[in-house]
């Protein structure tokens, strides 16, 4: 036990707090002004990086994530900075070769990270070896992580054995990562007690409040001797985020584990973030509130707000409850993986496709195929054999550490991105997200980076911009009601006008060339699929690859196109055998259900 030993606290407001509640949209400009106060609190660490923040910086905010880290390191000189690292996946959605993993850890450490919380979505410890070894070589703190979940195969005994393996790898501490808020107070006490009895290492507890139980779980963990807990300043706490820092500190003041924090200082920090959060109202979602149904669907906090936004993009937010019901079914078919990035995206996106297609596994994403092929590691339990056969056929399933099959790739990545990368950090940004990373680096070089707009609250005028106009209205299309906001910025030098068109909170930038007239409401020009041999899609998305040309002879089930939706790729396959007689799309095109993409003549 840790009687009379103050509890240590990691605050996650700068990473997991806003990832869980406002889809990871908090900008660096809103972090830096409060850093001096945060640095005075006495936190054991501040979680500032990793998870979806890297992706959101590049994709939406148009910020260099490495520069964010450097700025935070300078602004927080007295506090450890912590990041979340997905083991062999780093911050991307695939496994990287060992040389990329080592290089990324080294650069993250050099730019300011002190503590690396290293996890694997499958709890396959083989996928943590290289990352933990790399962290140790930099002299930083390596935290081996257990992804907590529930299933017939996930037991306290199994978690303790995993912790022993992580300790043998050189981990400096062990974290219980309860990303979906599935822990109950009783189980928390039993798990912490078992880990403390089995290992001499410090034990951390990271538990989301999605079910409303996390504060009670932390209380039980403290009573059982846990060394560290994760909290979030109240402005970004609760719901799918974490217990409020102020609340837990107020409780701990009455115990022998009091961390000694100044509640007045914490309150001041909370007031600051409450004001900041108002700017991001367009990313708020009713699906980030506390809801005990997480004990059924197991959707983690960081996934909840992003999934709601993604369903909006598909125009199907009204079907999100169907997706929540489908998620545990897909998870069972895949052998009960814990739902944490990237498996949460893999399972969630497949569930979305199953629901929108009206047929289970009519379309299987490429990531599900890779999962079933063994590219992510060993599933915790046997997968559904019929689904595996459908996805990978008779191909041999990988049974070694997946990265053992990957050749060194850092030199290849450097050559691919070329001169647009001005540093090794830029190469690693491209490695994490090749398409959006390249676009980001090219726009940065051209000086054209433009973050997505922040909408003013309803009833308030748009933020002042040069020659700007703003219009808000509602439209009804085929019985569906949409809220539309348009903000325009004229650029006199080019004669073009940039518009930010936002439908139901989803912003897009468009540029109009001056023309004599505008035509609104005309068809895009792509015909509708209407007969056998007409190939369409079941989900809106972007074409990322066209795999055939006119004149090709194809077989039923042969991949024709690769689309991307919700950051996941899927193949569109030939519904019958025949000859490709017409292709109506190209790489980069946006497509919607019902459109004719490819024609096949039997």
Question: Mind explaining what this structure looks like?
Answer:
The chain is of the alpha/beta class and 602 residues long. Helices cover 35% and strands 19% of the residues. The protein has 20 helices and 20 strands. The protein has an 8-stranded parallel barrel with strand order 1-2-3-4-5-6-7-8, surrounded by 6 helices. Helix 5 (98-111) packs parallel to helix 6 and helix 7 (156-168) packs parallel to helix 8 (185-198). The radius of gyration is 25 Å and the shape is globular. The N and C termini lie far apart (73 Å).
Throw out a few tags for this protein.
4-stranded antiparallel β-sheet, 35% helix, alpha/beta, 20 strands, single chain, 8-stranded parallel barrel, globular, 602 residues
In short:
The protein has 602 residues and is α/β, with parallel strands linked by helices. The chain has helices at residues 13-21, 35-41, 53-61, 65-75, 98-111, 129-138, 156-168, 185-198, 214-223, 245-252, 263-278, 294-297, 301-313, 320-333, 343-357, 366-373, 385-392, 410-417, 424-432, 434-446, and strands at residues 8-11, 45-50, 80-85, 115-118, 141-147, 173-178, 203-207, 228-231, 468-477, 480-491, 496-503, 506-512, 534-535, 541-546, 553-554, 559-565, 568-573, 578-583, 590-591, 598-601.
List low-confidence stretches.
462-472, 486-523
Question: What would the average pLDDT be, to the nearest integer?
Answer: 87
The number of strands is: 20
Helix content: 25-40%
Kindly report the spatial arrangement of strands forming the biggest sheet.
Answer: 1-2-3-4-5-6-7-8
Which structural class do you get from the secondary structure elements? Answer: alpha/beta
